Amino acid sequence: MSEQQDFLRQTVEHLDIKQVNVVPLIEMMGKTAFQARNLARAAEIFDEMVNDTDCGVILTLAGSMVSAGQREVILDLLRANAVDAIVSTGANIVDQDFFEALGYRHYQGDIFANDDQLRRLHIDRIYDTYINEDELRVTDDTTRVIADSLAPGAYSSREFIREMGRYLVENGLGEGSIVRTAYELDIPIFVPAFSDCSAGFGLVAHQVANPDAHVSIDSAKDFRELTELKVKHGKTGLFMLGGGVPKNFVQDVVVSAEFLGYEDIEMHAYAVQLTVADERDGALSGSTLKEANSWGKVSLAREQMVYGEMTVTFPLIAGYVWHKRNWEKRTPRRWAKLIDGKFPVKVAQ
Amino acid sequence: MSEQQDFLRQTVEHLDIKQVNVVPLIEMMGKTAFQARNLARAAEIFDEMVNDTDCGVILTLAGSMVSAGQREVILDLLRANAVDAIVSTGANIVDQDFFEALGYRHYQGDIFANDDQLRRLHIDRIYDTYINEDELRVTDDTTRVIADSLAPGAYSSREFIREMGRYLVENGLGEGSIVRTAYELDIPIFVPAFSDCSAGFGLVAHQVANPDAHVSIDSAKDFRELTELKVKHGKTGLFMLGGGVPKNFVQDVVVSAEFLGYEDIEMHAYAVQLTVADERDGALSGSTLKEANSWGKVSLAREQMVYGEMTVTFPLIAGYVWHKRNWEKRTPRRWAKLIDGKFPVKVAQ
Amino acid sequence: MSEQQDFLRQTVEHLDIKQVNVVPLIEMMGKTAFQARNLARAAEIFDEMVNDTDCGVILTLAGSMVSAGQREVILDLLRANAVDAIVSTGANIVDQDFFEALGYRHYQGDIFANDDQLRRLHIDRIYDTYINEDELRVTDDTTRVIADSLAPGAYSSREFIREMGRYLVENGLGEGSIVRTAYELDIPIFVPAFSDCSAGFGLVAHQVANPDAHVSIDSAKDFRELTELKVKHGKTGLFMLGGGVPKNFVQDVVVSAEFLGYEDIEMHAYAVQLTVADERDGALSGSTLKEANSWGKVSLAREQMVYGEMTVTFPLIAGYVWHKRNWEKRTPRRWAKLIDGKFPVKVAQ
Amino acid sequence: MSEQQDFLRQTVEHLDIKQVNVVPLIEMMGKTAFQARNLARAAEIFDEMVNDTDCGVILTLAGSMVSAGQREVILDLLRANAVDAIVSTGANIVDQDFFEALGYRHYQGDIFANDDQLRRLHIDRIYDTYINEDELRVTDDTTRVIADSLAPGAYSSREFIREMGRYLVENGLGEGSIVRTAYELDIPIFVPAFSDCSAGFGLVAHQVANPDAHVSIDSAKDFRELTELKVKHGKTGLFMLGGGVPKNFVQDVVVSAEFLGYEDIEMHAYAVQLTVADERDGALSGSTLKEANSWGKVSLAREQMVYGEMTVTFPLIAGYVWHKRNWEKRTPRRWAKLIDGKFPVKVAQ
Fold it and tell me: I want to staple A17 with a disulfide (CB 3.0 to 4.6 A). Which of A68, A95, A319, D136 is the partner?
């Protein structure tokens, strides 16, 4: 299929924040106005979270960040112990990161491409990026293989993704992927809408082939586990790339803990969101963090929205925090080991 | 808590599309330009879907449509048999529709409210709308009660929502709610990220209280069931309110069916999306339906994006279709009865 | 050039708000949320302006409203005496309305057209609309002819546009155009950036051909005349379609009057803006009307922004006001006759 | 007015692109996707313009860039001879740059401020920035003083702004302002809607006080002068910050030259626009540069839109070009001296 290869020539390369010290630039932005100032304030708040060694930091991922060359930025945060848990869409974790872990790449494409032609060539388009659809089918199928290898039962997405990490290690694959690195560092990854991605295809195929006893993905278990982390750990901060289910899910964990009867659950002490979404349609993705305060989810003290497309804003903010090096004080929190399904005795009862 | 009541005075009232015949207005819009023309074309395409009695129509819901007074618009489409299945966020179905079914209401609020004060008064804010948080906690708890009443095991969100409909009928509640009406008309409702809403709180409490044997929400099962509908029914059209997980989920079902080995699965023959999201950030919510064609999900022939906030665009489009009355040819499809977990023999093998 | 004609087949037709009574629809929208509620409140405020016979109503036009089929909506407001002055971009008034007054039309086009091909065919594109470039050159040239016919000197854009109206009447052209109707009703039209349109080409040609004595367009005179109206009339309200120079210009008139030493100049008592612009970039087009209050330009009491594309929101709001018929109390204000360059004695000195 | 001073404490400081070499960062962005890639491509195209010593570079300014700390970025481009002419809104040049040249400053403010209180304290707000309104009135009045000092007649905005530069030099003010630097470097500044800013107040006062013989601002003359530059110079490139009148004006100059009968006028050979505006409303500010090609204004070869708020994107792009140092080959073009109102003999006639 050589015509396909004509389109799949120029790979997306992951940006490396370590190469340019943007700290003086961000500090100057903090003295200006509009979104540059918001961006600088968000960078400071993220740095405060990291500098606050009591604070568990949760990163949320929406949009298409890995295919857009942001994988290494995320990895640098993981390796710096600047992130203790991830809540993501399936696209970033499975279709994009696990896909690259299997040895595949994303390609630079053209937003004016003829989509009908792309479809005939088995090329999937994400705005200006191309994916080899045949390679994506292999990814789907790998999730099926992993599901087939597990004992039947209800798994959280976190447990399943942990098995994906193990699969990579055992097969000598995916060095430098998010899934494998998180596995090795015991950083839990939650994908609350886990079927809504490449893994969904593999899991449906697994269940259809095994109608009586099979792997289920229990989204309530995901929420239970994240609530468990909140209850056991206490102080938390959020660094949110985009909105969607990950934003809502991670904010709701405060309410979930209260609903279980725990009193004095702290709201998220720090919260930053990068987005292009607008609050004026009333949807969650663009809703302000002040609005989240009315729900008792996010403290008003240290919160900042940054309006801008994330391939530009994320490396600037992450780069600021990386080059400030306050993360050097942190040690791996290994939250994946903290989850055992046992909730502590409630303080208040 | 009388101070709370000072804020909760003016209820949101659901808009009734039956009262104004907008057909001539939409027809005139079709002769103009920009989004008025796109809106008119989207209305025509939705009407074609409805007029095509072979076509199964799937409605997706994101954002906060029920709290924003759009419940009756959705209901009028259900009662007209113009919608055969719903894929939604949890917020619309549980926190908002089921909440109202229990007898509660949404209130008109103020975007400049002091969120810290609202929090202290147990008032949750969605942009310009208020919710009594104590009533929301009752809603959460009702989902716990329903979970407690079910046999342990893995349920699709659809199955659980069906039980919510049954609960309403059995308790004489929720006349005129989406959950109850869909239950009565056998219209399946899928919420692929089911824990990401009020039901999540109830389910976590249920699981914590029943650590050994409990209800799980299997998101793979949801995807399997929707795939089953696609395989069994064939021709489909999409009417998408917003993006998010529902948009992705329902589009992916074409690929899922192919991945199971079914050949000649039709792409969605018609597709309309209402959104304010922009394609330029590469995220799925704003991605064009032409891009979806590259993935083999949506046919290019009859697709239209409409850029506009949905409380304005949805009643206009739904009103056009309602007053065209082509839905009078349709009979209830009762897709909930079509789902039995058994996939037909593959044509191609 | 028959290939050109292949593209110029389907004319844009102007929408007629008189045909559908949207009052009940807008009233229902007012009981919902988000932009539907904002739209309804904006419609009410515009209706209050019209109902307040002391209030001079100024309409501002940005974007491309006339080419987009909104000319008749504007005309219905003019004929109803619901608008006492217009401040516009040149595109709406010259390139689009005067162009149509000369007998030309806009055509429905395709946003995916090959722009290079269009250029070769002398077709100009505005998003999904086509213009015959040769006809636009005739329009440019007609403004040159009008300039050539005038005595040399400095004219306000208002004075020049009045001459354009006279030209249409004298040549039996442009029945039902904005320029001619405003001329006949003595409604002044200001275009503060008058060279930034088709007229600019004609005026440059006029000046190049008449280097020593020619027509100038004095933008300070425009501002002086509008200030004169504000000083002489008093109470004013704004109905703003889009932002840009017209929004800024008309708001500034309050400050201009104060700067001349008039005390007790009222801020604009009512203000409505329709826009898709966002406040987060700090630019004027999306800046809130609350921000305008800090400048002393707009009263906070009755102001409303509506976020939505104007081909959808404008006919709904104008239709509401038209069908409420409060304009029947109004008589033509004939503001064009009020302008004589003489400012009244200052009250305070 | 000490309460006023409580709000006016933290000055906006102008960002200095010289301090951080962003070239490696931008190069990495060029290998990713979405807007980071567009930003990198735009930076490359701007660098090509600068590197092309035949190319006259025109910078357009909309929004509020100077108050937002971007003055020094613009100045560094002027001093590097990377910009040969400026087309701007009045706000940037008069209300903000000339204002600072008179010794005043902008202050960091709060978007949630009480605008009514600000108004009473004579503080004007631009999103998150404050201005002392009394200082702004001095600025207005200074333009009146300058107008009073000139011989009556019709001036282009460029001529008037040149007088503002002269005023600064003669009064020993405004070292490091755009107006003064451009004056000293003979870089023409055009403000096509010149009354739509602080200068408008001064000019109206000047005309009211001198009803018979006064300074006029002839916007047609501006357009004529810019057309003259295009005709005399030939190859041009555009670097556009935002849209609005400056974008339209500078693009139209190609058509204007053709309309005068010059044949073989080159379209703008390079064009970059930074904006948050969206094309879907059909307005000029967000219209694509491909659309501009249909009008024969912009070549398709080297054009790029960058979607993002400009306080973030502008310093990155300008910093890239500055640190690439291709501007070292350029010498001052001193276009202000090229304008004499005499058009060359037409080639084709």
Answer: A319
